[in-house]
TrEMBL record:
Superkingdom as given in the UniProt entry: Eukaryota
InterPro entries: RVT-Znf
Reverse transcriptase zinc-binding domain ranges (all copies): 162-249
Pfam families: zf-RVT
Species name: Linum tenue
Name recorded for this polypeptide: Reverse transcriptase zinc-binding domain-containing protein
Length: 350
């Protein structure tokens, strides 16, 4: 990851490569980062690396220590903020835009006081901004001020050590919450049609439009499961608890015990479903029967709701088993004759 170089630039003060980069892309405002290189004709490696600065400073910061190496206005030295961006009108009025933190802050006994050395008196909105800035500064912890040297801090790590792994985890967690938990291999299977995999994805994220989900979106509906006509419909009821779906499973398990679930919740069932490299027909079948049964139970439910047509659990079990086998044959996992024989045995018995 390119971001690693930004960390190294900030921390490896004496290395030769850093000195070279610093000569070429020197940032007069900060010793912790180079100038952001604009992409132009010369698309250098470092230009690409500096594109990551915004991301980098989301997770990195500088412990100001005694403040002598911190640009008060331009470095990210507290709470992830750059003062010149957060308080631009005060920054514009500052006599020394390159002032160090130690020039602006001074220790009076136990208190830190602030002096911005402004070129002119501020008025109106700019003055309010100055008061806000003072308020902000008076509320940030400055415990270490003047006590320790400046140092880089990698916020996601308790020991402040940068790692690509922690960066990756934080990017993923920030952009796609729950992504690390998602059972990719159990949901997206090559031999299963993508619309069925997508349905499983929707099930996992509780997004399919069962009556309870429609009600949550403000629809006013009587909530009754149309498969058993007894309980309220929810994804978990329809696919796990409903006696109709249990009957579907029992048709298949009676002949070939392909699945038994310890879990009673769709997310956990998906997570714990097999995703190994299957060998024989039975293993292949086991690998895609969960998708098939849930998909055909869902189609059956929709048929009852929208077309007022009805099949029994045996019919749904046969449809699911046949289709699962056809997916496997179409994808070349097993040959047609072998699949038919296996299916024949499975479906002969009621
Ligand atoms: Zn039901």
């Amino acid at each position: 990851m390119l971001t690693k170089w930004l960390w190294r630039f900030a921390t490896e003060r004496d290395s030769w490569w850093r000195k070279l980069i610093d000569i070429k892309y020197h940032n007069p405002s900060s010793i912790w980062q180079t100038e952001k290189v604009r992409s132009g004709f010369s698309q250098s490696v470092w230009a690409n690396i500096t594109k990551e600065y915004d991301l980098f400073w989301k997770f990195a910061s500088i412990d100001p220590g005694n403040g002598t190496m911190i640009s008060f206005w331009h470095d990210v030295w507290n709470q992830g903020m750059v003062m010149s961006s957060a308080f631009p009108r005060v920054a514009a009025a500052a006599a020394d835009s390159e002032a160090r933190l130690s020039d602006v802050a001074s220790l009076n006994g136990e208190l830190v006081s602030w002096s911005f050395n402004l070129k002119y008196n501020l008025r109106g909105g700019a003055e309010r901004e100055r008061v806000d800035l003072l308020n902000f500064l008076n509320n940030i912890p400055m415990n270490n001020f003047a006590l320790s040297p400046c140092r880089m801090v990698w916020n996601p790590d308790p020991n402040s050590k940068f790692s690509v792994r922690s960066l990756y985890r934080n990017i993923v967690l920030e952009k796609l919450p729950g992504m690390l938990d998602f059972p990719l291999k159990q949901v997206w299977k090559k031999m299963i049609p993508s619309k069925v995999c997508f349905f499983m994805w929707m099930v996992f994220h509780n997004k399919i439009l069962t009556v309870d989900n429609l009600k949550r979106r403000g629809w006013s509906l009587a909530n009754r499961c149309c498969l058993c006509c007894r309980k309220e419909e929810s994804i978990n009821h329809m696919l796990v608890e409903c006696e109709f779906v249990m009957e579907v499973w029992s048709y298949i398990n009676r002949v070939r015990p392909v699945a038994s679930f310890q879990d009673r919740e769709v997310k956990l069932i998906i997570k714990h479903s097999p995703h190994s490299k299957p060998g024989n027909v039975g293993e292949w079948f086991r690998d895609c029967i969960l998708h098939a049964i849930w998909w055909f139970v869902w189609l059956e439910r929709n048929q009852r709701v929208f077309e007022e047509k009805k099949s029994n659990a045996g019919g749904v079990a046969r449809r699911a088993a046949r289709n699962a086998m056809e997916w496997l044959v179409a994808h070349g996992q097993i040959d047609k004759i072998q699949g038919e024989a296996w299916l024949h045995e499975l479906l002969l018995i009621r």
